[in-house]
Amino acid sequence: MTNSKPADKEKKYLSADEREKLIVDTAIMFVSKKGFKFTTRELAESIGMTQPLLYRYFKNKQKLIDRIFDEVFLRRWNPDWEVLIRNREIPLRERLKRYLTDYTKSILDEEWIRVFLVSAFDDPIISQKYIAILHEKIFSVLIEEIATENGLKLSQHPDKKNLATELIWGFHSSFFYLGVRKYIYRLPIPKNIEAIVDMRVDVFLDGAIANIHHLTDQ
Questions:
Q1: 154: helix, coil or strand?
Q2: DSSP state of 190
Q3: Staple 122 to which of 36, 156, 175, 185, CB 3.0 to 4.6 Å?
Q4: Sequence-ordered list of residues with C-beta below 8 angstroms from that of 68, at least 6 positions apart, any chain
Q5: How does pLDDT run across 169-213, given as a tens digit for each residue?
Q6: Shortest CA distance to 172 belongs to which of 146, 142, 212?
């Protein structure tokens, strides 16, 4: 009887694109669990590659962090949202419901929620960059659309502009908080996202319409 050695496990060779994707996916996992204080050496070891090889794909940690931002946040951003909320052929209430239903489903992802939160502690520039996008492309547009639909012109006084931003920001954040409840507190949330959005939009718009005159110069 001859001794037979177990066949060596076939080594999988990755293409450059596959290896780069592996680096990014692993880095996102690292950040979602450990925050942004990981080292490139730790990351390379977890993948099974050398640190110099990792640097062939990302010259430094900041380049990798920039890529994480693109993958986690920018790739989920749908430019159609910006078109939708400006489309006055559709009633504002319907626009808001359609946008927030799609947006909420997009961000209800554990890695998205955790990366956003840990960045606020470890590298707040990342979360600030994303919030700046929301302010520019969503918040400022929505408050103008609410005013326009009700025949009003918003005040340009700094205090009133800040109040207008707070009005939208507080409302919009309530949908992000669903993800916090689910993935941070580990508490159940309703499965019917559409029903949540419908109710919150109706309550918000009814209240905003009744009080938006406080944000004008009239």
A1: strand
A2: -
A3: 36
A4: 24, 27, 28, 31, 115, 126
A5: 999 999 999 999 999 999 999 999 999 999 999 999 999 988 888
A6: 142
